[in-house]
Amino acid sequence: MTSAAKPIYVLNGPNLNLLGSREPDIYGAETLEEIESMLKAAAAGMGMSIDFRQSNQEGELVDWIQEAGARGRGLILNAAAYTHTSVAMGDAVAAIGVPVIEVHLSNIFAREEFRHHSYISAGAKGVICGFGALGYKMALNALDAAEATGPENG
Amino acid sequence: MTSAAKPIYVLNGPNLNLLGSREPDIYGAETLEEIESMLKAAAAGMGMSIDFRQSNQEGELVDWIQEAGARGRGLILNAAAYTHTSVAMGDAVAAIGVPVIEVHLSNIFAREEFRHHSYISAGAKGVICGFGALGYKMALNALDAAEATGPENG
Amino acid sequence: MTSAAKPIYVLNGPNLNLLGSREPDIYGAETLEEIESMLKAAAAGMGMSIDFRQSNQEGELVDWIQEAGARGRGLILNAAAYTHTSVAMGDAVAAIGVPVIEVHLSNIFAREEFRHHSYISAGAKGVICGFGALGYKMALNALDAAEATGPENG
Amino acid sequence: MTSAAKPIYVLNGPNLNLLGSREPDIYGAETLEEIESMLKAAAAGMGMSIDFRQSNQEGELVDWIQEAGARGRGLILNAAAYTHTSVAMGDAVAAIGVPVIEVHLSNIFAREEFRHHSYISAGAKGVICGFGALGYKMALNALDAAEATGPENG
Amino acid sequence: MTSAAKPIYVLNGPNLNLLGSREPDIYGAETLEEIESMLKAAAAGMGMSIDFRQSNQEGELVDWIQEAGARGRGLILNAAAYTHTSVAMGDAVAAIGVPVIEVHLSNIFAREEFRHHSYISAGAKGVICGFGALGYKMALNALDAAEATGPENG
Amino acid sequence: MTSAAKPIYVLNGPNLNLLGSREPDIYGAETLEEIESMLKAAAAGMGMSIDFRQSNQEGELVDWIQEAGARGRGLILNAAAYTHTSVAMGDAVAAIGVPVIEVHLSNIFAREEFRHHSYISAGAKGVICGFGALGYKMALNALDAAEATGPENG
Amino acid sequence: MTSAAKPIYVLNGPNLNLLGSREPDIYGAETLEEIESMLKAAAAGMGMSIDFRQSNQEGELVDWIQEAGARGRGLILNAAAYTHTSVAMGDAVAAIGVPVIEVHLSNIFAREEFRHHSYISAGAKGVICGFGALGYKMALNALDAAEATGPENG
Amino acid sequence: MTSAAKPIYVLNGPNLNLLGSREPDIYGAETLEEIESMLKAAAAGMGMSIDFRQSNQEGELVDWIQEAGARGRGLILNAAAYTHTSVAMGDAVAAIGVPVIEVHLSNIFAREEFRHHSYISAGAKGVICGFGALGYKMALNALDAAEATGPENG
Amino acid sequence: MTSAAKPIYVLNGPNLNLLGSREPDIYGAETLEEIESMLKAAAAGMGMSIDFRQSNQEGELVDWIQEAGARGRGLILNAAAYTHTSVAMGDAVAAIGVPVIEVHLSNIFAREEFRHHSYISAGAKGVICGFGALGYKMALNALDAAEATGPENG
Amino acid sequence: MTSAAKPIYVLNGPNLNLLGSREPDIYGAETLEEIESMLKAAAAGMGMSIDFRQSNQEGELVDWIQEAGARGRGLILNAAAYTHTSVAMGDAVAAIGVPVIEVHLSNIFAREEFRHHSYISAGAKGVICGFGALGYKMALNALDAAEATGPENG
Amino acid sequence: MTSAAKPIYVLNGPNLNLLGSREPDIYGAETLEEIESMLKAAAAGMGMSIDFRQSNQEGELVDWIQEAGARGRGLILNAAAYTHTSVAMGDAVAAIGVPVIEVHLSNIFAREEFRHHSYISAGAKGVICGFGALGYKMALNALDAAEATGPENG
Amino acid sequence: MTSAAKPIYVLNGPNLNLLGSREPDIYGAETLEEIESMLKAAAAGMGMSIDFRQSNQEGELVDWIQEAGARGRGLILNAAAYTHTSVAMGDAVAAIGVPVIEVHLSNIFAREEFRHHSYISAGAKGVICGFGALGYKMALNALDAAEATGPENG
Q1: Which residues make Cβ contacts (< 8 Å) with residue B44, sequence separation at least 6?
Q2: Which of B91, B93, B96 best probes binding to L when mutated, by most L CB atoms within 10 angstroms?
């Protein structure tokens, strides 16, 4: 159902544009631009393309998730703070037909209680958290492997 | 602090010995032996060795986690049902000095409410769930990458 | 207080632009455009006009609710996912002086627990859910009847 | 599956016989008899007949819901206080094969917390609340429309 | 508003017909008939009449509460087990215009947790519990005193 | 204390009169009449008689529980939906002196959360659920065995 | 065990010294002095004496409850706000041997949720609330009656 | 699917080896050996064999449940304290293909709140509790009857 | 209603007498005496006088709140630990007629969960927290401004 | 660290543009423009400049909070309804280096329960609520004072 | 830091003055005076002195805890009922620099649920409960041992 | 009932074998072997013997608790992580006849919320926590003292 010509969408939620300067002991020292470059290089090596975006707007992220469903081959989603509050993004994830992988830089389960619940997870294929920027690359590999072996249950 | 000669421990909790026959729509069709073979091959290719075990005994798993801390280079832990009930295993994970990666075959966040809480996560470096057998390989890569780049926050 | 020249605002929340393709067993096969056409025809037959909009943006919906209060004759609001999370939209509904009717396509009380609570309901005149596209028309009739009989308590 | 010769059952729960005198600022000034007359006239104009009843007895209401399932064409149910406490009525609604519409005169979501939960809703086709006596007529129209278009999901 | 010719209704809920034999260490050794006789004698001495009834039926009790509102001078209500589950009886108490006094033989606050909540109390003038049969007489005196001094806040 | 001449009461709660037609995948295909016949035959073979009844009325069931206490030798009680809401029936069970066995056709613990709590259980000798019509016969045997061996703690 | 020469203690908690001026729509227009006079007159007529006190100090009230146990014949306790927070006063009530009656001027069950729980009730013989100053007199009568009939269960 | 040659497994959880001496007012005076003998005799009379075991080890019980699935004809499981804490045993019960009946000697619903929840029940065919040693025999009969009539829903 | 001759009461709750030495990283290095001097100087400059007190006694603080209502022009209240437990002080605040401003030195919302609830707030005009000793001065200014502009809603 | 040339950001959340017309008994009669003018005048008198904005968009407010961190000297934030739901804004507040003061016009602790929790507070220096427009000015003074005395703990 | 000349404070909370007569099956038959004598003798034998006090006043206990911090060598605190309700005493314990040991005569964890939480424990060095008067002596030994070995973590 | 020839059992739960190396700031620097030696020396001085064991296995600990009941004179139990999850160990403690003292090295009440609940406490004579290795010796003294004075309530 997915075509190799379609990009992988990589969508980043609120405050991730601050990466590198924001609480580096939690989120690491890499900037979002560095993650984007690393990930695009990795994807290119795998014959895939990446559409990498960030927004602080919940609604714009909903728009993009829908767009990923219509035009993308898969979605890597770091919803950041909206992970814990956005039924709208969870509904969008559930509504689209392409596989979605939820990524978090930090180990959200080692943080505040309110960060342990995700409205995204139930509709995602899988969750990766705590590996910093590497988590994005792990998600890319997982999407690639999933395509190779066909649909699988979540 | 870890030496390449030390193995990666891969510990599997209760009922994972039934893999392949047990509810394959949730856990997939691969047996635990197949996962072990796949993972050992992958590790060999990376110059690492694997100590792969399964037990239905909470206490034996606590023993092994301690052993991984004393003799291992890292720990990949699929605690299965004990994930949600074992303070003892969570304490063991917190007590040892090697990095621990929590893995689940299924997306536990898309299942029953009582499977959404983990006593392991807070002490783990990261969590990977929903990717079936691939998740173990992702964890192996993540341990490898972590060693390459040195300690990082969880 | 309301003048016949003023339109009825019909505001639709996140992901409703996907209607027809998104989980049709829950939301029905009609597209949002079809609902708009049906509703405009019905309104025309009743001598009323409709201002029909959709947005995935919580803040834009707040803007429009305020606008409905300033320029509209009544408001039919399907807040979709924001129903359950938006205090801001609930505050806007409470702040305006025109009657608001809350509509949902599906029976939200037969779905997940978190969809049973609405921040909109307390400030609305009434709630209609479970009737698909027909629910919008029922809301239109109810607004019309309310105007005929004057203010009534909610 | 339903025949035009079968009546629509309209069942009213405890204390609704007091309508008109009981807290008119919440429930309106119309008596239950007036609602019955209005509704029968409306039904007659649509070629339908109404079997309109009220009881303060939970068990009698369960009997009547079962009867509506056996002999009726549809059921409009204002369970009043039993809405919030009667698993038995909820089970009866779930057990019968005709469409059920839950109606409340007042907007129960703008009232006490314990009135926000309904044991009826999960088994009903839809819910209408806050429109006073008009709500019954809206329910009648909705049943009529549902029959015209055939079964639809709830 | 109340006339001396009207009786005081004394309504008793489920299982109170067993008094005297049922768990006498909780409910005392007096039968309900003995309480009725004692209370009628007391009322006669105060120039009042009593309409004393018991039912195991929630709906019949709702009927009688409504009747007390229409034909009575006041209501002494020992709703027994329905105290803790009947929104319908609570609604009836709130709907009528005569003063209602809630009575319990035992001290319900020294018993199981689920007996600490009452749906009756919010609409009652006052609550008397723990005094056995004497509680009924205390309620009678309180109704008498309330009439002497006119309406008072609850 | 019980005499062989006294019947075993078998009381069935709301909607059990629909058995056979109501959700047969949950409640089985046997009608309540068939269960009654099967049970009476079994009792006859054991020299016991059965008084078998069904009601949708909570209060009538309370009456019958009391009657079972006064005139019966034991009580088999399937309170159906009232299991989860009726303090009145739980009080009646606690008030009577004959052994009570709680029976459910389906495994209520594998169903909705609100069906996991019973107001009956604390006063019953034991609970049997999930065995369909056979559960009634198991209860009969258990009552018979209990009489043979004398009182035992619950 | 109590002697007629011993007084009835009547202890009043925080802010009751403001009676008459404090929120008279809740607490009535009578001052605490007027209640004291009324109650002393009533007691004198019954051959009893009253020791009537008020304090805003939780610990002083604990002292006085203990004193009532040592030197009094009974205790009428309006703990006011401490009702809901004082384990210490509840422990004192449970520790003494004379009967304690809990009194509240207003119907605390018709007020804020946090006023529905009492640490006093479990150790009291009974509770009287909602009757204003009359409640004290009712409590006096109840103590008098209890002495006449000897100990009774609470 | 099951063969008559296969045994019924009867597995007993922690502390059941103390039966007879441990709190006999709760658990009865019979020892576990006596129950085993009684049950084997009963099974022999029905042409069935019993594999009867006890362990204090959660993991050993998981092993045995798996073994019952592989080599047994059915499983009677008294998980004792692990009933309330073992997701691992609940997962094992859900993973195996033979019918499982949950048995408890005492009526767990008349005991502490934490004994009211079972991780076993959802995967079991049915639950029997409160009948002491007789409960095992009832379970045996139920397994026998289930085999006679073929698969049935739980 | 307030006269310039009346003082502003400034009441300080338990352990505030330790200021300066007690956990200075939370409460700052200023002593309570220094705060008193600073505040009196500020008040003098505004033509107001201050009655500044501290007590560890809940009841004494209730006495003083009442006194502030009778003799003061306004009340600045730092209830410290009693903020979270004292219904009695909350009732006193609600009972008096002068404006009350709740002050906390630290940002209580950034501390333990149990410090996030205040029994004082609902009856106060406003809340100021997190500004150390400056908060008292801010409260003084706010009282001054409120008097200048007349009564305002809280 | 902050320079006098940088402005104080004053950011206002959803529906605050309706001030003056929206529920004036809660929010006062001043418009947001009037507050802006008042505040700018006050700032000018203190040698500070103000960047005053309002938005109904959660994401735009996140953008502006980040901007305040980059270009501002301090932030006065009235997040209105987003206070209670926006983890994203709370994260932004925690991410920036300039002092943030949370302001509310009304006393949110005297309103609905869901308005008592703030995602902003934990990261703010302090909270001011209930003082209407004056609260903004109090915040301005507090920022000014904080700069004068250097960093202080929150 | 502590000097041998300083006394050990032993502070006892509400109702402990009743020891010996109050519920001796819970609190033992020894009076508080006997405990004081026993403890002073023991202390003398260890070269320590004791300052032993009891109060029913929360605030007086706060005063004394502060005094123990200023003049004592350690504190043995049996806060009795205030254990469960006094944030003020917990704050005082946290504020002082000498080691505090929490003692309870009874095993509070085998009693009512509300006695399982302590506001004191988090700031105490350790907790001893269930040993009656001996617990005080154990605490004395523990303080003595702690001084011998120097500071240790709690 | 206990004989001096019987040993005191000292049972240690999961991860306590790591003492000395595991999080020494929480658990201290002493190894478990050092504690064993210290305790055996102390016991010898008191004419008692010690049977000191550690296990990571919940079931083995249950076995040993039973053994302590059969062959021991008393039990000192540090259940470590199983304290908070093991109903099985709690049941074993309740089932045996010898006194049990619960010991924890750290002050569990100053740690994570889930460590505040113990399944052991209700059946233990008493609890000692926060005193490190000394706690074991305190428990030994308490057992010795208890034997000297005969049975006492907990």
Answers
A1: none
A2: B91
Q: Which of residues 97-136 of C touch J (CB under 8 A)?
A: none
Please report where in the chains the tokens 């009532």 appear, as a residue.
G68
Task: Identify whether the C-beta of residue L80 lies closer than 8 Å to the C-beta of residue L49.
Answer: no
Structural domain count of chain G: 1
The answer to the question of residue A153 being in a domain is no
Q: Which of F24, I114, C82, I137 is nearest to K84 (CA)?
A: I114
Q: Which of A34, A140, A12 is nearest to A79 (CA)?
A: A12
Does residue K138 sit in helix, strand or coil?
helix
What is the sign of the dihedral through the CA atoms of D21, D23, D29 and D35?
negative
- Is residue L154 within 8 Å of residue K108, measured between CB atoms? no
- The arithmetic mean of pLDDT across residues K51-69, rounded, is 97
- Sequence-distant (6+) residues with CB within 8 A of F24 are none
Please indicate whether, in this complex, the C-beta atoms of F91 and E14 are within 8 angstroms of each other.
yes
Return the CATH number at E123. 3.40.50.9100
DSSP conformational letter for C122: G
Secondary structure string (H, E, C) spanning H42-58: HHHHCCCCEEEEECCCH
Neighbours of L113 (CB within 10 A): 9
| Cβ atoms L49, L91 nearer than 8 A | no
| Cα separation, I99 vs F117, whole angstroms | 49
Separation in Å, CA E3 to CA E6, E8, E40, E44, F42: 6, 11, 18, 16, 61
K154 lies in a domain? no
What per-residue confidence (pLDDT) applies to F152?
Answer: 38
- C59 interfaces chain A, CB cutoff of 8 Å: yes
Please check whether residue A82 lies inside any domain of the structure. yes
Is pLDDT at A23 greater than 90 in this prediction? no
L81, B93 contact by CB (below 8 A): no
Q: Determine the structural domain holding residue F36 and report its residue range.
A: 3-145
Closest CA to A113 of B116, B125, B130: B116
Residue G92 is predicted with a pLDDT of: 96
Q: Supply E27's token pair.
A: 């409910």
Q: Is A47 left (phi over 0), alpha (psi -120 to 50) or beta?
A: left
Structure tokens at A26: 């939690």
Backbone angles phi and psi of D75, in degrees to 5: -140, 125
Residue I144 identity (one-letter amino acid): D
Residue I57's pLDDT is 96
Query: What distance in Å separates residue A73's CA from the closest CA in chain B?
Result: 17
Backbone angles phi, psi at J32, to 5 degrees: -65, -30
pLDDT digits (tens, 9 = 90+) for L54-66: 999 999 999 999 9
Angle between the N-to-C axes of helices L87-95 and L58-71, in degrees from 0 to 180, rounded to the nearest 10: 10
Greater confidence (K101 vs K150) lies with: K101
Predicted local distance difference test score (pLDDT) of residue B2: 44
> What value of ipTM does the predicted structure carry?
0.90
Collect all residues of chain A within an 8 Å Cβ-Cβ radius of residue J90. 81
Instruction: Report the b/e string of J66-81 with b at 16+ CB within 10 A.
Output: bbbbeebbbbbbbbbb
Tens-digit pLDDT profile for residues D16-61: 999 987 777 777 788 999 999 999 999 999 999 999 999 999 999 9
Residue E52 contacts residue E10 (beta carbons within 8 Å): yes
∠ CA B65-B124-B152, rounded to 5°: 120
Query: Residue F151 falls within a domain, yes or no?
Result: no
Half-sphere exposure of K61 (CA within 13 A, CB side): 31
Residue with tokens 């969408």: A9
Q: What is the pLDDT of residue H48?
A: 95
I38-69 pLDDT, tens digit per residue, is 999 999 999 999 999 999 999 999 999 999 99
User: Are C71 and C95 spatial neighbours (Cβ–Cβ below 8 Å)?
Assistant: no
Q: Choose among E23, E55, E60: nearest Cβ to F95.
A: E23
Would you say F133 and F105 are in contact if contact means Cβ atoms under 8 Å apart? yes
